[in-house]
Amino acid sequence: MLKQFAVIAAVALVFGCASDLPRYRVEALTRSYAVKGRGAEGLFPQEYASLVEALTRGDRLMLKGEGEEADRYYLLALGKSDLITQMMDEERKRQDAIRQEAEEKQRETERQQALQELKRKLEVERDIREREARKIPEKSAVAREKEPRQLAQYHTVKRGETLPQIAAQSDVYGDVSLWPLLYRANRDQIRDPRRIWPGQVLRIPRNLTREDLAEARRYAQERILP
């Protein structure tokens, strides 16, 4: 390869100022230097060697005075230069496409990693919210237990209820034997303690003394209701 360029350089020195140089030699040399500068020798060594060979043959013919025949090889060298230029452009596009594809894959990988990280954070936040939500009812239940229970002041009779059943309810007295308290507090609407009617609203006496409770239990023992 160096020997061939030496021939080309020698021709350039001998005929550099001559006016009868072949028409296409300068253009062929210019194109060959251009593709060499773009790295054609390393990318396409066979094609580049063929280009240099065409230039060398043209110069040898020119040294023999066969300018017209030499131009045929210079034209051939021009064609080879154009072909190498096209191949280099295609190779550059291919390399650009490979690089772009690699960059896109890298961006996609980064996007997937970001999505996974976001998903993980959202799951952690959701777990925290769920744990906090479970704690709220527990706190509310504890607070309700600490609050004094609000006792009912009235009771609306339901179908099938009796005074002992009403007295046994937890929001009334929680004691079946205290039904006489209800009977005495509602004598204005209950004539017979064995007969009460759905829809009646009964007063529930509160602030009772021990004597009130004891007397009610004695009365209940003396008069057992069904």
From TrEMBL:
PROSITE patterns: LYSM (PS51782), PROKAR_LIPOPROTEIN (PS51257). The keyword Iron does not apply. The keyword Plastid does not apply. CDD domains: LysM. Keywords: Coiled coil, Cytoplasm. Signal peptide: none annotated. SUPFAM superfamilies: LysM domain (SSF54106). Residues 87-135 form a coiled coil. Its main location: cytoplasm. Residues 153-204 form the LysM domain. It holds the Pfam family LysM. It is found in: Cytoplasm. GO terms for cellular component: cytoplasm. PANTHER family: PHAGE-LIKE ELEMENT PBSX PROTEIN XKDP, POTASSIUM BINDING PROTEIN KBP. This is Potassium binding protein Kbp. It comes from Geobacter pickeringii.
